[in-house]
Amino acid sequence: MRRMGRRSLVLGAASTVAALMTAGDAVAARGPASPPRRRRRRADTGELRGVWIATVANLDWPSAPGLSAAAQEAELIAHLDRAVALKLNAVVLQVRPSADALWPSSYEPWAECLTGVQGKDPGWDPLGTAVREAHARGLELHAWFNPYRVANHTDPSRLAASHPARQHPDWVLPYGGKLYYNPGLPEVREFVQDAMLDAVSRYAVDAVHWDDYFYPYPVAGQVFDDDAAYEEYGEDFATKAAWRRDNTDRLVRETAERIKEVRSGVRFGISPFGVWRNASTDPLGSDTAAGVQTYDDLHADTRKWVKEGWIDYICPQLYWNIGFAAADYAKLLPWWAETVRGTGVGLYIGEALYKAGDPAQPAAWQDPAELSRHLDLASGHPEAGGHVFFSARQVKADPIGAMARVVADHYRTRARTPH
Fold first, then answer.
1. What DSSP line would sit under 209-233, residue for residue?
2. Crossing angle, helix 186-202 and helix 126-136, to 10 degrees?
3. What's the pLDDT score for residue 419?
C-alpha cells in the first residue's frame, strides 16, 4: 500500500482502510510499552527482507513515463543498490501492472508506464535487465503480476489496438471505474496464465508473485455483472459466491502446477489483504472486525491455498499498527503464524512503510519505532520468515526514519533468503 492505501486509486483499495475504521478507531490504541526481547532468526533458516517496486501509474518506477531507456535503467539500478545498502535481499517488481508487460511479451503490449504509450517499445528489456542486475547484487527477483486488472479506466478505445481486451471485448467487464478480465470465463483464466508464464519461460525469476486483487474490491452501489458467465458455468454451485471462489481456486491451483512445468525452482507467492475472515463470521477467522474479508468480498480463500499447499509462500498485507482496534497487527500476526504452521508454506509479512509519518494515519504511525516493533513481535513467531515493505518510494524517502530504524534494529548484517 502507499499513502493513499496500497493499490488505492491506481491500485484500487483505498476503500479497504476506510472500511476497517469505526468511529472509535480514529485514533488507534498504542502497542505494548515493552516489546518482547528481540531474537534473531537461526542463521540456517534464512530471512526474507523485501521491497515492493510498483510500476502501475509510475507509482515507484519509472519515476515518470517517457524517460529515456538509459534513465529508466539508472533509476532501476538505484532501487537495487539501495536494497543492497539496506541489507535487503529481495525485490518484488511489478512486471504486469495492467494486462501489459515490462518485457517483449508474446501475449500483451508493452506497459504504458514505460513510454506513456501502451504498446510502444521502450528500447530495452526492463525485466531481463532487472533479473540480471538483481542477481548480480545477490538479490532475489520476484516477478509481480496482477492477473485480472485491465485498466484504471473503463474506455477500451484507450487501450493499445493490439490489446487482447480489444480483440476479445466479451472477456472484459467494467466495474468501479476500471476494466477487469472476467474470472468466470475459462478462456480468460487460460489466457492470463499464458501471459504471466511467458515471463517465467523467458527469465530466471525467483518467484511468481501476486498481490491482493482477484475479484475486485466491492464498490457501493455497483454490480460486477458476471451473470452470463455464472449461468453458463455455475450450475454445480449453490451460490454465485461459491462459484466465484472456485474460479479463483482454479486460477491459483492451475498456475501453481504450470509454474513447475515451465521452470523448476520458481516459487509461487501471494500477498493478500490481511484478513481472511473475521471470527464473528467464521470461528476459524481472526479476532478482527475488518470491513473487508478476502473470502467473502474478493472471493479469495487464502487460508485454503495455504492448507492445500498450492502456494510456496503467503505474504499477508498486515498494514495496521499494533493496537488498531479493527485489525490489530498483534492479533493478525499469530493468526497467520498458526495458519501456516505445519504446512510447509512460507510466511512473510507485508509491512505498511507508506504509513510511517503520514499525518493522516493514527498516532502510532508517527513513531519511527512502530515498524521495528512489528519485527520484534514477529521474532517471537518462528513461522514468520521475513518482511516485505511497501514500497520502494517510501524506502527511498523514509520521512521519519522508520526504515532506518528497522535496519539499525534488525538488519545489521546481511541474510540469505529462506527456502
1. EE-S-SSPPP-TT-----HHHHHHH
2. 50
3. 77
